[in-house]
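Usage example:
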Amino acid sequence: MTDLVTVGEATLRLSPPRGERIETAGTFDAHVGGPESNVAVATATLGLDAAWLSKLPDTALGRRVIGDLRRHGVRTGVVWTDTGRVSTSFVDRGGPTDSTDVSDREDAAITTTTPDDLPMGAVRDAKTLFVSGATPARSETLLETTETLLDVAGEADTTRAFDTRYDATGLAPATARELYDRLLDRVDVLIIDEADAQAVFDLDSDVVQAGHSLRTRYDCATVVITRRRWEQPTIGLQGEEIYEVPAFETALRDPAGVHDAFVGGFLSGRLRGDDVKEALTEGVATAALKRTIVGDTVVGSRADVAAIRDGRN
Amino acid sequence: MTDLVTVGEATLRLSPPRGERIETAGTFDAHVGGPESNVAVATATLGLDAAWLSKLPDTALGRRVIGDLRRHGVRTGVVWTDTGRVSTSFVDRGGPTDSTDVSDREDAAITTTTPDDLPMGAVRDAKTLFVSGATPARSETLLETTETLLDVAGEADTTRAFDTRYDATGLAPATARELYDRLLDRVDVLIIDEADAQAVFDLDSDVVQAGHSLRTRYDCATVVITRRRWEQPTIGLQGEEIYEVPAFETALRDPAGVHDAFVGGFLSGRLRGDDVKEALTEGVATAALKRTIVGDTVVGSRADVAAIRDGRN
Amino acid sequence: MTDLVTVGEATLRLSPPRGERIETAGTFDAHVGGPESNVAVATATLGLDAAWLSKLPDTALGRRVIGDLRRHGVRTGVVWTDTGRVSTSFVDRGGPTDSTDVSDREDAAITTTTPDDLPMGAVRDAKTLFVSGATPARSETLLETTETLLDVAGEADTTRAFDTRYDATGLAPATARELYDRLLDRVDVLIIDEADAQAVFDLDSDVVQAGHSLRTRYDCATVVITRRRWEQPTIGLQGEEIYEVPAFETALRDPAGVHDAFVGGFLSGRLRGDDVKEALTEGVATAALKRTIVGDTVVGSRADVAAIRDGRN
Amino acid sequence: MTDLVTVGEATLRLSPPRGERIETAGTFDAHVGGPESNVAVATATLGLDAAWLSKLPDTALGRRVIGDLRRHGVRTGVVWTDTGRVSTSFVDRGGPTDSTDVSDREDAAITTTTPDDLPMGAVRDAKTLFVSGATPARSETLLETTETLLDVAGEADTTRAFDTRYDATGLAPATARELYDRLLDRVDVLIIDEADAQAVFDLDSDVVQAGHSLRTRYDCATVVITRRRWEQPTIGLQGEEIYEVPAFETALRDPAGVHDAFVGGFLSGRLRGDDVKEALTEGVATAALKRTIVGDTVVGSRADVAAIRDGRN
Amino acid sequence: MTDLVTVGEATLRLSPPRGERIETAGTFDAHVGGPESNVAVATATLGLDAAWLSKLPDTALGRRVIGDLRRHGVRTGVVWTDTGRVSTSFVDRGGPTDSTDVSDREDAAITTTTPDDLPMGAVRDAKTLFVSGATPARSETLLETTETLLDVAGEADTTRAFDTRYDATGLAPATARELYDRLLDRVDVLIIDEADAQAVFDLDSDVVQAGHSLRTRYDCATVVITRRRWEQPTIGLQGEEIYEVPAFETALRDPAGVHDAFVGGFLSGRLRGDDVKEALTEGVATAALKRTIVGDTVVGSRADVAAIRDGRN
Amino acid sequence: MTDLVTVGEATLRLSPPRGERIETAGTFDAHVGGPESNVAVATATLGLDAAWLSKLPDTALGRRVIGDLRRHGVRTGVVWTDTGRVSTSFVDRGGPTDSTDVSDREDAAITTTTPDDLPMGAVRDAKTLFVSGATPARSETLLETTETLLDVAGEADTTRAFDTRYDATGLAPATARELYDRLLDRVDVLIIDEADAQAVFDLDSDVVQAGHSLRTRYDCATVVITRRRWEQPTIGLQGEEIYEVPAFETALRDPAGVHDAFVGGFLSGRLRGDDVKEALTEGVATAALKRTIVGDTVVGSRADVAAIRDGRN
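Running the assembly step on the lines above writes:
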């Protein structure tokens, strides 16, 4: 039985060596990233059985993407297609010039994914399904497919986890709000960044208050709120309980994928039977490890995360 | 006064280090290439005044492209736009696995270029205008723009040079034939590869015969035929004269852009007042230098070409 | 159902950049190689379902090895252990200084592998089992385990393929002969290099004669003889039929793993239902592709092999 | 009409990869730097029309230098010569071992530059002329040429900007003082570092006081004083007005060229019509961007500078 | 006359580029390190005559090790052998993921070194002999050889310096304590880290107290205690005198070998006639330089150390 | 007792990665080369005791040069100076564009070397002294110093070997001829390339004839003539005996230093007691190994050379 199934897009991200810029770089380092694939990698790195479902063109680039995820131990279920592209993105990594990001995501193969493309049995058999807001925001087809995924999971008692990832949707706040409204009633575990809560849901007062508001509105069992600044504690709400877990201090080498590493760590904890507070701790420790690694995904082992979590690092 | 004006698209070409493949490469070398930009670089490298006109998105990638050409001494006239992409291509370089080439050219900024986007004065003031078949094949808009360019050049007594580059059009033979039929009557110097003559014009017998046939059909002053295999002599026809110039032997490090280097060398010779045979020799020597260099364009100086041409290498 | 199951060791091979030597290299490129893992990668690259079974230490190096194979699409069944090492080898790649190879294989985790460590069900369920002589030569334990593997496969009607790979055994000819004598009666498909036939079996006359002799002695359904020199045809014997398949010409960038790529290609052909001659052709085309790639394994797709096989390259 | 004309030397600077030292480095990264070329690059990066005039040997190294500047969009006016060298410098970048700098600047081609070598029309047509103390300090010939340049600019109402850059002169304080005394009366905009003011002009009390003193002595319209430490505000004096502009906080990846980036930003602001305070802000924002980039020059666009200036970074 | 003779093992240490991890790195940087070789390099870098004695296999890897040390100016006296390995270690460098270190040191050639293998005349002629606890901990043979070395040095009035380096012994505290008890009576200068004093000798109260205790117990002329944290002062005890020398602040690029650089600097100071306090200062300045350099050894010159020591950096 | 003492200059040679050119390279590989240092490295690599005497500036670059030679096992005797430079050279490596070489050798520290700078005892104690024509051609001072070196060696019965290396002198033929006339009477073993014999001595007929002519004119015991083309046999003359030794076929990766590797191999053979023919064979085998290695010097061991010589490679 699969622990975690994720469905989404992975982008080939090309970065100049540190300290150079896109304008003058003669070489680019290639990494594969995406909210759902990053979460799957984190979960597999922590020793669980994670799968990623997607649609890719049958080209060397498509194979490049899938090989990268397999390398991290993620099982992959991919529909190969002759139409559509692999999304690419040129991005500076690390430091104050991170603003440059030339994304090239039009006509990606993923945008035409229908429920028939996906092995729904894998969703039914999984303990948890994870999707981020980036996936349904890619196309109306994908939005409908996401609705079906959540419905199928719901019927099969597969836990449904959803991360708003508003920054990755490319949508205006009102449009994003509509999208979330169509989906969040079907979600068990909602993860949302403080910034998303403010931008999309106008919840800019207290983050705990915001969490309660969201939990009530969409009737989610659990709400997790990540924070703008690393130093601030991550918040978890379940029933009437509120948990606050502070960050671990590590050197920041690459901010890419740190949020997703948290999500992967948190879901892994829950899958192993941790309570919400323990799972939040596993999440922030996984995120702390990711910060020290260049690329979009966490690399290493559960022991590395434990070393940070147990203060041995 | 500009010696050569070219109009076309330049692609960011990303290649794995030699001996690796796209599927597993962790880094990609970046080079900028395109028929017209390659020809402009060769001409500038040989010491003439060359310009490249195009349309690019106002992003770091757009600046990456233009900076690369400027570095080689090409003057650039670019319309910056907020829509459209920089074309990219993932390509293996050198050796028998060259077949892999994942191109990504949809929705490129260049495809919407109208005559109003281009500084027609620069075309009128140039001694020679160069366009390849790759440019008009990109969109109906660009085909019409190419017609206008050739007309403007014709009125201004600017020599009109055209390279079929059928392999870069992505068109079916019949469609390409129609495209060439709309343009070639307006051309003074026609450059065509032996393979194009066969595929598009069914001229698969003798190449000299093929050249005469094309010269007559489109009433071009000069026809140049490049060959499938490096060892075969390049053919030039002018009036009733036929010239055959054999290749120079050099090590092949990267086949990309060798044909374009020939064109740049040939046009440079003509611009300096060489007769057709001398210009063909300049062309094959420039191509021979390019073969030894990794990337899409020839790098060095007129002295390097002369060293090959005069057998000192 | 798995198409191919292989059991063996994979070594982390560290190579100076081309043209440098171990004595002065400041960096080393890392590749993972081994007869059985190379064959599994080739088979997976050709689109079949291939698995590799082994024993590895639970360290970052062990994860490095398994991640590399997974990247190529090989499924892995690994027993993690706290004792024993990952074998390493420092090796020059390409050209006349290839002789330098500092191997470091003592006390590798693999040497203690018993049948209980391996999922025998996977062997029973596979269509073909592949082992090379390098595996049983590692330790008496592994020799006995190999006997058990072949017996289990025999009982389950899993085709048993064996490659002598005498060069990888590190044994004296007489010792190797004894080892092969203990195993080859249980083998259906025997692959042997011309040099092995001479060194171990004193069969230095005609290679076809040598093949017949081996086929008779060990009662193998099929015998394949690879050759010392690339230009010579590979030989296949089945029943009274003799097949000779010439090599495809490609540039040699790295000789490592070329023989194993042939084996993977040949077995893939057989698994798809090719007759022996077709399968030999698939093998030499796969080997020809490998020659152009730096590293121990073939990278790409079945289309790349087909391009070489069908002369389109 | 050119916005900014600069005249000076550019050095090929070779640096070990970060964390290695000259003694053991097997490769060196190459960057082109010089006070005047760095200022020209910053100005061009900010979207203005900047030119650099110099004298270079007609070698591959000379072409290396000019190609680098053209890549950044700087127009170049270079006299090619058969005598003299390209200056080189081996330099560690970043961190506490920056002290190592093996310069090799004897017999550089630039040292023989006379007014006849330079296109004086370009100076007359420019809005601003910029030279640093490094240029006249290279030779008596260059000192006289600098006097002529300032005189020509003065007659043509071209604004004359001068940066003392005492650290780049290699002169003793008294000799430098004499050199400045010969030039500064002809300068409109004087830029001087706090350290120079102390070492050469004995103005070690209050920096504002020092600025007033220099403004009065040389009758400059504007005096700008940069600071020893990044945290301290940059000072500008114009008439009786005093402006203080604090630095923007960014990560320091390479201190090379940060001062020159400030100068380019400040002059760009003035050329666009900014008042002194706004131009100082543009300068410190440009310098803040440069700090994050490895190499001698700022890379990016005006939008990147604006992002820092407007606090969006 | 040799200033310093050291006897020990050097390991080939392979590290992923900064920000990558062993699991995914495609290349590894190679450095040579070991307590005694690091000390010898630091001493040679500071301009003294240092030698390193060891036993290595006669392979390209063995030559790799010795060439690296010679490059730094260390004289080498090596017994070449056909048995035994070069120790290797895969290690992450810099930052919070430093915990990963896959060492592979079994059956190293060094472990069989007997007194007959070593040129004892070199020990007698040297001013100082240096060994760390890592050497005798490698094998009983090496422990006995170390005893002989210390005895020979004692008879020849060669100063005997010893660094506990408990972290490099791989021993349990009690076993290490026995080992130290067999050796330390023969030692003149004892260097010990605060952490070793606590773990092995249960001296966890005041470090000065710990130093006195050790000095009395083993009757050493000088005891030096290095600290857990960089900010804390290093302690020296000689007779009744106590010296405390604070660290110099430099950027930390690689913590490897910083302790050994201190030892080399301290011993160099003593060899030049510095008093204990001056020598401690030379030590912490040398360590401060090492921190900025990637690799196991300090690179540069005595002037670089002086620049840090004299506050000019 | 030293086997071989050489006196000369070593240049820091900076090369773009293969396939790039100086004009566009972003990084340069650094190698140290020079006729005498290359010969010393080859001799040390072959297991003999070789020393290199020179004069270098006391900078990081000077240390870079000496560290490189020490790494190869060459002992160095260097006078450190505060004046003069390290010679540098920017050079393309491999293939048809090798012609580009931007040398920068003015004012090198070596040019002021007097006999007092050199440890003449080392020359007297050596079995063989080697100098090439490149050294005396650097300055009149060095010419006189070379005369003294040869005289001192002659008095001490040290064999005097001299390689004309006309290509490295930078002199006109007549000037070179005068220089050689001042030195060659004092030489025992003369090594000269066929091209030098023709250019300087007008000996363009038969190479054996040329050898006899030179041997007679300068009364050398042995004359060795290397050839323009690799395929041609190297010629040795001693007394009336003539020896011709054909080349070994290896892949050419870098032609730099191949001639010097031959000289080192030949002199090593003679030092070990080989007759002229055996020594010539050692020379061409050493040269054949060098061809496969990027850089100026041969790397490896005597076993690598033997593998080529004995046809095992």
